[in-house]
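input
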Amino acid sequence: ALGVILTGVFLILLVLSRQQLLARTDAALREELQELGLEVRLAKTAQELEEHLQARFFQHDIYDFLVSDEHATVLFASSGLTTAHTTSLIPKDLTDSWQFATQSLIKENFYRVARTAVDGPRGRVVVQAVTPMKPLYDEMHTLRMLMIVLLPLGVAFALFGGYFLAARALAPVEQIVQVAAGITISDLDRRIEVTN
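output
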C-alpha cells in the first residue's frame, strides 16, 4: 500500500515539476521577447533596427532570436540559429497573440519557442525567442533517477520499520499466546503475568 502511495506521490511530483519548469522557461522567454519587441517598436528606420538587434540580440548565452516579416523573409537571426533552424521557425501566419510551443528544429533537438507579432519600421513582423529544452529535460531526468532510487529505498525502509514496530507491539501478545499454550490440564493454576 505504501509503495502504491509513494508511486502516486512521485508521479504527481514529476508532473507538477515539469509544469513548473516549463512555466519558468516560458516566463523567461516572455521577458526576452518583450525586450526584443520593444526594440523593434522603438526603431525609427530599418537600418537602426538592424543595428540595435545586432548589438543587443545577436550573441546570447541560452536564447536565440528571429525576426521575420509577413512574406516569411528573415530580417534578423541571432548567431545560434542556422538556416535549417530559421526555416523551421518561420510561422505560417501573423498573430498578435502570444504563442508558446515546443518544436523539434533539427533531428531530435527540441526547443521552446515563444512568438508574437509587433509593428516596426518594416511593418508588421513576427518576433521569436528560442531556447533549448535540454536543460529542462536534464532536470526531469535527474528527478526521475532520484525517484527510481528513492522509491525502493522508501518501501524497504517501511517494510523493515513496519516489521520491527509490529514485532515490538505484538511481543506481549506473543508472550500471552506462549503461556496460554503451555497451560495444560495438570497446571490449571498457572496464570499469565500482566506486566502493565
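quick obs: The first helix runs from residue 2 to 42.
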